[in-house]
Amino acid sequence: MLRVGLIGCGFMGTMHANCYKNMEGVTLAAVADIRKDKAEEIAAGTDAVIYAEGMDMIQNAELDIIDICLPTYLHAEHALAAMDKVKYLFIEKPVALTMEEGDKLLKKQEETGCQVQIGQVIRFWDEYVALRDIVKSGKYGKVVNANFRRISPTPGWGWQDWLRTPKLSGGAAQDLHIHDVDFVLSLFGEPKSVYSVKNSIGEGNSYVNTLMQYEGFPVTVEGTWGLPASHPFSATFRVVFEEAVVENDGKLVLYTDEGVEDIVLEKMELVSVGGTQGNISDLGAYYKELCCFVGKAIKGEAVEEAALSAGVSSLKFLLGKELAFEA
Fold first, then answer.
1. Which of 69, 179, 194, 197 could cross-link to 13 by cystine, CB 3.0-4.6 Å?
2. What tens digit of pLDDT does each residue of 184-194 get?
3. What is the spatial distance between Cα 287 and Cα 234, in angstroms, rounded to a whole number?
4. What span, in angstroms and rounded, lies between the C-alpha atoms of 227 and 154?
5. If residue 35 lies in a helix (H) or strand (E), which one and from where to where?
6. How many CB atoms lie within 10 A of CB 218?
């Protein structure tokens, strides 16, 4: 039984804790958060030891896996310390706040051999997994055009409002837009050219649009968390092939000259416990990504999907290719 230590007991930490509680082969052995009540909520029903500080847990708890669900600006310092203590480390996305921090993590991995997975959960989301399979199969011909869209009200669930403070979160670009950018890079690779603009109206670069030109087709990615509180969160895509269109807008649909067909996906029924804010209703993709990670740890194998190198590459692509303007 592998012992997991979880640092950060907020919205995402709650999601991860619930996943581990539903998983075989691991036990939640330690949790850390400066808010004792949050740590106690997550530890309920387990034998987890509660720590007031993440660094204290890293240094003193006997663990096999450490999972970091802290605000982005705290990722690097805790991850660097954790890589000296365990062989398997999970870091929520984005991997770090800056490219320099990303380089430090890669260097530390070289030194320690620690296997690291980044929480780019879209890679494990059913609709996106199905799209990947369709693209790779080539059954509908080549991709002609693709659009990915992730839009959200301004986040209000971050501890001390850290999400809406760009110097702590990186703003909408790093916290929200990176989901789709990472998925596109994982699906199609590096584009021939890219143009990205962001609108600084609101808090934290609230509107971001990126155009990625591949050989023979463009991909557009739109992201915002600058919508009114009354507007629902939405994550959609439309991919046009030579012989079909696959669209996800509430449900996954296939359009061909022969007609319209719903693509039925088998959904997991693992409903989250605790945590009332955000846009997550079930544990499905989070459970799958952590099962993938834990499976590697149990077998002592290298992390392959959403590995540290990929997480750093996506961060560098986002930060290095942005052309910002004030509107």
1. 69
2. 999 999 999 99
3. 21
4. 6
5. none
6. 15
Residue-level length of the chain? 327
How far, in Å, CA of 119 to CA of 121, rounded?
5
Please report how the helices 99-112 and 308-321 are oriented relative to each other, as an axis angle in degrees rounded to 10: 160
Per the structure block, which two tokens stand in for 70?
A: 């802290």
More confident residue, 229 or 88: 88
pLDDT higher than 60, residue 203 = no
What value does the CA radius of gyration of the chain take, rounded to a whole number of Å?
20
Q: Averaged over 3-11, what is the pLDDT?
A: 96
Residue type, position 211, single letter: L
Count of C-beta atoms within a 10 Å radius of residue 309: 16
Q: Are 70 and 93 in contact (CB under 8 A)?
A: no
Identify whether the C-beta of residue 120 lies closer than 8 Å to the C-beta of residue 311.
yes
pLDDT of residue 276: 38
For the chain, report the end-to-end CA distance as a whole number of angstroms. 54
How far is residue 186's CA from residue 201's CA, in Å, rounded to a whole number? 30
